[in-house]
Each structure stands twice: as structure tokens, then as C-alpha cells.
């Protein structure tokens, strides 16, 4: 294995450790960490079996392995963006509902407070 492949493997390993550390500190849930850990595992597999990407790219009809990798990377990034957009939309709906519920409770509390003063 060449020096560069070892450096990439080390970087991927450090990345996985950083992800696990974020999970341990409760800054990242395991649900989302699994995505990054899965991508790290796929990278390690590609490093261990370098011919796999060449075989896969020729099987799928790509002229160059790098073209296939860029297409896969773009697809993964688009999927992550869509997933995060769905999460943000759901959180926004929950925040709006929470604001409405707090406003109703505050109104009831203030109304009861006024009745108690009379």
C-alpha cells in the first residue's frame, strides 16, 4: 500500500473517531452519525480493494473512475441536502406549533390571573 493510501486511511479513521466523539458528547445523534460512519466504511473498503472502483466504473460504462466518483459524491450530497431540508421543515412546523401552544397557555394564565384579582 502506498504512502498516500495510508494517509487517506488515517484521515478516514480520524474522521470516524471525530464522528464517534460528537455522538459521545451528544452533539450528533447516532441516526445521523451512521451515515458518516457508513461512508467512512465504504472509503476504507475502496482503499483495501482498489480494483473494485475500476471494475464498478467499467461495469457501469464510465470512461473514467473519477467521473463515477464525482457522480456518486454529487448524488450523496444532494440526498444529504434533501434529508436536511426535510428535517428543517419538520422542526419549523414543530416550533410554530409550540409557539401557538405557549401563547394559548400564556393567554389562559393571564386571563385566570385577571379573574383572581377581581
Q: Nutshell version of this structure?
A:
With 118 residues, the chain is mainly α. The protein has helices spanning 3-24, 30-48, 51-59, 65-117.
Q: How would you describe this structure to a colleague?
A:
With 118 residues, the protein is an all-alpha fold. The chain folds into two domains: 1-49; 66-118. The protein contains four helices and no strands. Helix 1 (3-24) runs antiparallel to helix 2 (30-48). The model has no long low-confidence stretch (mean pLDDT 90).
Count of discrete domains:
2
Low-confidence stretches: none
The helix/strand order is HHHH
Estimate the helix proportion, in percent: over 70%
Major sheet summary line: none
Assembly annotation: single chain
Gyration radius from CA atoms, angstroms: 24 Å
Q: Give the percentage of residues in beta strands.
A: under 5%
Q: Please provide the count of β strands.
A: 0
Q: What spatial form do the alpha-carbon principal axes imply?
A: elongated
**What value does the average pLDDT take?**
90
Annotation field: number of helices: 4
What is the distance, rounded to the nearest whole angstrom, between the alpha carbons of the first and last residues? 84 Å
Structural class, from helix and strand content? mainly alpha
